[in-house]
Specification:
- With 107 residues, the chain is mainly β.
- It has one domain.
- Helix content is 14%, strand content 45%.
- The chain is built from 1 helix and 7 strands.
- A 4-stranded antiparallel beta sheet has the order 3-4-5-6, with no helix packed on it. Strands 2-1-7 form a 3-stranded antiparallel beta sheet, with no helix packed on it.
- It starts with a helix and ends with a strand.
Length: 107
């Protein structure tokens, strides 16, 4: 009986994550990424993800919203921020390179 209950709970746990989207960001494109600098997961909002990371004095916030990436870039020594938007491309819905970083999605 214990095995049946544990099996049932495992199936429920796997199904609860079905359809959740993960966004991974790292240096270079997906083919050459050695490690990820950030990832984001927002369940309940189909087609949307957000990730934050920093490199040196630069802070990045990346938002994926239904096929469109928006990078918000700020320098810690200056006020304000720069915005770069682009459409996702390819089978992994990859972004263009922004300051050497790109992001892609995984279901």
């Amino acid at each position: 009986m214990k095995k049946v209950i544990l099996s049932f709970l495992a199936i429920l746990a796997v199904n609860s994550y079905a359809g959740d989207m993960s966004m991974y960001c790292g240096q270079g494109f997906i083919e050459e990424m050695d490690e990820f600098v950030a990832s984001g997961l927002i369940s309940g909002y189909e087609g949307k993800a957000i990730a934050n990371f920093s490199k040196g004095l630069m802070d990045y916030t990346v938002i994926y919203d239904n096929g469109q990436y928006t990078f918000y870039i700020s320098n810690q020594n200056q006020f304000g921020f720069e915005v770069k938007s682009m459409n996702a491309s390819g089978p992994f819905y990859q972004s263009d390179l922004v300051d050497g970083f790109s992001c892609h999605l995984n279901d």
